[in-house]
Amino acid sequence: QSGARDTGCDHGRLRAAAASVLLGNWNGTGTVPSRSLYPHQWSWDSAFVAIGLRHLSPRRAQQELEWLLGAQWADGRIPHIVFNPAVPAGAYFPGPDFWRSSAAGGHRGAPAFAETSGIVQPPVHALAAWLVHRADPHESVRRGFLPRLAPKLDAWHRYLAGHRDLGGHGLAAIIHPWEPGLDNSPCWDAPLARVTPAAEDSYRRVDLDHSVAADRPTDLDYARYVRLARDYRDSGYDDAAPHAFRVEDPGFNSLLIAAEYALADILRAVGGDPAPALERAERLTAALTTRLWDAGRGIFAPRDLGSDRLLPVAGVNGLLPLAVPGLPSAFTDALVTTATGERFGLGRTHMVPSYDLTGAAFDANRYWRGPSWFNTAWLVHRGLQAAGTPVTRRLADDLRAGVLRDAWRSGFAEYVNPHTGAGRGIKDFSWTAALALDLLA
Ligand code: 9WN
């Protein structure tokens, strides 16, 4: 019954159940987020999965990242989905026939041997690669894991620093609400409202075959997602083309900063020069704190590049700078106050709500509009631990216990209601199992 007192579950059983979810979702080359709803390989999912898998099989964790990075485009982007050709077309929308990545010789150097999407997701990969390496340095060195990954990770970060600096102030911009991974967060409502929706009879929402409509984005949001993706595809995935949606997100950029520090560790380990990655990390941190800090709310906020204004919202993405190494303590202290205050109720709610509990748009069950997710809780936990004060350590310990409890009780749900802890979305979700395993280690 180890651990039963603080988490209400047997840690041995939890570990075995989490391992079984990951084994069940492994398809031979990588891990699907879910057999039913997401039957391909997703970018940031695979990074979180590798962080958990390293405790079961460091080699498999390496392969997870290698397969994903194998589908990198020549311009450096890591696509948000790598499609499995063995899965029937139509099992997920938008599928390979929508993105058409390899068409006409491959847009911007998209690979010819794999079909992928053309947008990206948060760059957690270097952090995952470094943690995977450290789990078994001997196996990593034997397989040449870091020397093979380092140039790919470097190209990925350069793509984001170069092609994606759409505001010209040193931050990476997202051009689609799927890119920050927080699809229908109220954070995107205002910029998304300017997007003309695609005709609803021009596609079919396969996601609703596997989930409850009230837990998922609305049809109107979906029509706008489709429109944005279609326009980007039709531009040949040209980042310099006009974008109806352009936002600097604090979550995405914080994870990029954490990844730059991890890349510096990786470069040092392979005898390379860490200086460029460290310089980028410092420049990004300066831009994050000057451009995205909302002093009135005590949280980082997304900047809409359409209006060049901070959006008046408080989402969990605004707390993710907690995971930025070396963030000045004035910001960390203010973020801890906000996290434990009425907007997020840390310590009094289940994990960390994805959106402001007091916000007019808050919805306890609908996807990223309120429910608590396991990956953002893991990131907040990591930041609280790194902050290293008695208060943040206690908050981190409580959050860890909450993540393990909610993972167990919900059957490794995709997300949970922050008030009740009831599982929402699908069960046996890969990153939920992987990150529970990591917190158990
Ligand atoms: C679109 C796979 C992905 C996650 C995202 C999550 C959800 C996809 C969808 O599922 O997005 O990419 O179809 O809703 O929002 O964070 O990576 O698990």
Automatic annotation (TrEMBL):
<dbReference type="InterPro" id="IPR054491">
    <property type="entry name" value="MGH1-like_GH"/>
</dbReference>
<dbReference type="GO" id="GO:0009311">
    <property type="term" value="P:oligosaccharide metabolic process"/>
</dbReference>
<feature type="domain" description="Mannosylglycerate hydrolase MGH1-like glycoside hydrolase">
    <location>
        <begin position="38"/>
        <end position="432"/>
    </location>
</feature>
<dbReference type="GO" id="GO:0006487">
    <property type="term" value="P:protein N-linked glycosylation"/>
</dbReference>
<dbReference type="InterPro" id="IPR008928">
    <property type="entry name" value="6-hairpin_glycosidase_sf"/>
</dbReference>
<dbReference type="Pfam" id="PF22422">
    <property type="entry name" value="MGH1-like_GH"/>
</dbReference>
<protein>
    <recommendedName>
        <fullName>Mannosylglycerate hydrolase MGH1-like glycoside hydrolase domain-containing protein</fullName>
    </recommendedName>
</protein>
<keyword id="KW-0378">Hydrolase</keyword>
<comment type="similarity">
    <text>Belongs to the glycosyl hydrolase 63 family.</text>
</comment>
<dbReference type="InterPro" id="IPR012341">
    <property type="entry name" value="6hp_glycosidase-like_sf"/>
</dbReference>
<dbReference type="GO" id="GO:0004573">
    <property type="term" value="F:Glc3Man9GlcNAc2 oligosaccharide glucosidase activity"/>
</dbReference>
<dbReference type="InterPro" id="IPR004888">
    <property type="entry name" value="Glycoside_hydrolase_63"/>
</dbReference>
<keyword id="KW-0326">Glycosidase</keyword>
